Amino acid sequence: MSDPLERIAAALERLAPAPLSAPDFTAADAFVWHTEPDRLSPVAKVNRVGLPLLIGIDRARDTLLANTEQFARGLPANNALLWGARGMGKSSLVKAVHAEVAARHALKLVEVQREDLPSIGRLLAHLRGAPHRFLLFCDHLSFSHDDEHYKSLKAVLDGGVEGRPENVVFYATSNRRHLMPRDMIENERSSAINPSEATEEKVSLSDRFGLWLGFHPCNQDAYLAMIRGYCDAFGIEIDEETLRAEAIEWQATRGARSGRVAWQFVTDLAGRRGVALGENDVL
After folding, report:
1. Strand ranges across the sheet with 133-138
2. Distance (Å, whole) CA 139 – CA 125
3. How many CA atoms within 13 Å lie on the side-chain side of 214?
4. Helix, strand or coil, per DSSP, at residue 187
5. What is the DSSP string of 58-73?
6. What's the pTM?
7. I want to staple 172 with a disulfide (CB 3.0 to 4.6 A). Which of 71, 141, 154, 256 is the partner?
């Protein structure tokens, strides 16, 4: 019989994830970070729309594009939080801006799932010495009152002792400006011994983003302009009066106006008129 310690060591070795081999960052312009085991999976074709098709978010577009361009050129740049109304193109803007800048610079996009944030330190270790610049992207970022994942995020935003790698910037999207529900903030403050400090650590997390870009529900003119832009881009022929009537009826049945609703209408319109859209992003 083998030594019990040897058997335990062998079992632990089987359970331990194999170390990540040096990633081939030339394989693609975008990657997805996975754990168990750690790996960076290349994305052959990113699901996105072109920057000119994102209408009604001009200020956010110009600000994020300038920040990303600075970073890709090796200049100082801020982490960015894109927050606000659902369906207004937050994640689409990040991917479109990356495509625009990556056409001129060696900028890689790495998507990180919120539930994988505890592994972010291991990811940064692989990116730190790479000869590329990386835009880390976390979509739908938010935290609940008992969620400890936000502590891992500080490794990206503040960097701890080592500091954030010079070749990494972090962009996140969220429906919440402070990354946690307002009722949880108020509940924790009201039940704490020191209300002013009860949620300071979590609420201040959003303050660590140098850029806050707000997205708000669009008005009818912007909604119709989005639809007209899609129709022109994909060659959907329809007269202005019919387009306006059908688009307004569509948004009335949805009870909302947004970039996502505009895209859903265009998808329906293209299908009815026999026009192929190809692979495109859903806002």
Report:
1. 39-42, 30-34, 107-111, 133-138, 168-174, 80-84, 211-215
2. 22
3. 5
4. helix
5. HHHHHHHHHHHHHHHT
6. 0.81
7. 141
Is the pLDDT reported for residue 178 higher than 90? no
- Cα distance between residue 246 and residue 34, in whole Å: 43
Query: Which among 203, 85, 72 is positioned nearest to 135, based on CA atoms?
Result: 72
Q: Which residues contact 107 (CB under 8 A, 6 or more apart)?
A: 29, 68, 71, 72, 98, 101, 132, 133, 134, 135
Q: Which amino acid is at 115?
A: E
Nearest-angstrom CA–CA distance, 161 and 154: 11
Report how far apart, in Å, the C-alpha atoms of 123 and of each of 109, 198, 210 are. Answer: 13, 31, 22
CA distance 78 to 25: 23
Q: How many CB atoms lie within 10 A of CB 177?
A: 14
Mean pLDDT check: name the lowest of 48-52, 137-141, 155-159: 155-159
Question: 87-96, 206-215, 266-275: lowest mean pLDDT where?
Answer: 206-215
d(CA 127, CA 134) in angstroms, rounded, equals 8
User: Is the alpha carbon torsion for 172, 98, 73, 111 positive or negative?
Assistant: positive
Q: Which of 106, 88, 109, 89 is CA-nearest to residue 98?
A: 109
Query: Residue ranges of the domains in the chain?
Result: 30-215, 220-272
What is the 8-class DSSP label of residue 194? Answer: S
Residue written as tokens 């956010």?
A: 60
Contact of 64 with 94, CB cutoff 8 Å: yes
pLDDT band at 198 (very low <50, low <70, confident <90, very high): very low
Which pair of tokens denotes residue 194?
């020191």
